[in-house]
Amino acid sequence: MRATANRGRGNRERGVTLVEVLITMVVTAIGLMGFAALHTVSMKSNRIAFHRSYATMVAHDIVECTRANRIAARGGSYNRNIGDGGPTSLTSIADQDLHNWLDGLSTNLPQGDGSISVSNGTIAVAVQWLEGTLDDNNVTPFYMTFTTESSLR
């Protein structure tokens, strides 16, 4: 009798019920969805950080180009506004610098463009690009602008 009583109790405690399996699957699914959402936010933040870092780098790069070519910079060869076209000819160093700078902006930043203003020994550079945020699953684009000012000396 003893063997029969133990065997009956053991059958009730053995195995996993379907409810336990379903609960485990739901908890795992919720965890995976949270991980996917975190990954999406991380990718977006990484893209925004790249755009800002690149804008900073190219703004300081064109400042160094104008410092290396001070005579042309003081003569207005580097001055341009956002929306102006690029240089029509690449005969001067300033035109080549502007062409390379604008090419880098348009290639690496969404709708990237920039302005340069040299006056009274001061250079002001602005880099603009299109950025977007996710609000309620709708993309709301807006323009970001990085500006810097430096001495031409």
Describe it for me?
This protein has 153 residues and is an alpha+beta fold. It is built from 4 helices and 3 strands, in the order ααααβββ. It has a 3-stranded antiparallel β-sheet. The longest helix has 51 residues, at 18-68. The chain is rod-shaped and about 90 Å long. The N and C termini lie far apart (102 Å). The model has no long low-confidence stretch (mean pLDDT 87).
Descriptors:
153 residues; 3 strands; 23% strand; alpha+beta; rod-shaped; 3-stranded antiparallel sheet
Question: Summary?
Answer:
The chain has 153 residues and is an alpha+beta fold. It has helices spanning 2-13, 18-68, 70-74, 93-108, and strands spanning 113-119, 122-135, 138-151.
Give the percentage of residues in beta strands.
Answer: 15-25%
N-to-C span: 102 Å
Report the count of strand segments.
3
- Overall geometry comes to rod-shaped
Q: Any idea what the radius of gyration is?
A: 30 Å
- Low-confidence segments: none
Strand order of the largest sheet: 1-2-3
SSE succession: HHHHEEE
Largest sheet geometry: 3 strands, antiparallel
Mean pLDDT across residues: 87
Query: Which structural class do the helices and strands define?
Result: alpha+beta
Number of discrete helical segments = 4
Percent in helix: 40-55%
Task: Reconstruct the topology from this structure.
Elements: H1 2-13, H2 18-68, H3 70-74, H4 93-108, E1 113-119, E2 122-135, E3 138-151
